[in-house]
């Protein structure tokens, strides 16, 4: 799989409705995963979207999620640029360059869903998410 670059949008509890709306606009396949499916079954966030991905027939990709528990939703922190794929050396190289001189909010390491993932803000204030797909166990 080639590396993929796309917007990643953040929502305040209405990610499901927003992503379903974008599916109506662009068409395609929408996959949604909740916080409850990934180890947070109780509380207010269990049914909220931890990760959603829309892939349109024309090749557009849009990702989005509700803000994680404990993260404040405010204008300006509602998007990131997402880099994903399975070429680990390429994506780690991007990560090293993007995070240099910036700040790391989630270190690039294996996450509960099995992939290697990290979040950083580059030296120009642009937020990035890097996800390195791992082969199934």
Automatic annotation (TrEMBL):
Instruction: Provide the Glyoxalase/fosfomycin resistance/dioxygenase domain boundaries.
Output: 6-130
Q: By what name is this protein known?
A: VOC family protein
Name of a matching Pfam family: Glyoxalase
Q: Which SUPFAM superfamilies match?
A: Glyoxalase/Bleomycin resistance protein/Dihydroxybiphenyl dioxygenase
- Organism annotation: Streptomyces edwardsiae
- The source's domain of life comes to Bacteria
* PANTHER family from the UniProt entry: PROTEIN YJDN (PTHR33990:SF1), PROTEIN YJDN-RELATED (PTHR33990)
Q: What is the lineage of its organism?
A: Bacteria, Bacillati, Actinomycetota, Actinomycetes, Kitasatosporales
